[in-house]
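FW: tagging you since you asked about this chain on Friday. Here's the raw sequence from the shared folder, copied in full. Didn't touch anything.
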Amino acid sequence: MSKLAALDTIAGDVTTMQLAQATFSKQLDSCLEAIESHEELISASSIQTCLADIQSLKSDHAVLTTEFTDLEVMVDSLNIPDLQSTQPSIKADIASWKTKKMALSDDKTPHQARQFQELRDELKARRSSGDTDLTIRYIRGLPTTVNPTVIPPKN
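HL: got it, structure written out here
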């Protein structure tokens, strides 16, 4: 094959490749247009969905506003005094609580109550015999008669 024939073949191949490239470019452009048109449809449907959701929220808000107004009317009909009118009596109650002494204790089982009573009796007997520096303290959860000046180690 001569050089001229080889150049003709190459030129034909280049032309074929240029046509294939143009066809590919057109197909790529049509694919991009199709994607863009679908994106617009997706965006439009998303927008429509959002608008429908907003409308639903607006109608729910209207219903809740009506229900809230109805509840306010019902509460007002109960004639409950407002906080401002009860505030002085609440302050007086708190002041009276501060002056009262309160003691809190857990509930005792009958066994615990008997054990504690026995310990009180023992303490009373020991005090009457001359041990005046004694008290009842809980050590590791158990009531015990101890000298309060001697603090047992915490273990």
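FW: The beta strands are 135-139, 142-146.
HL: agreed, and The two ends are 107 Å apart (CA to CA).
FW: great, closing this out.
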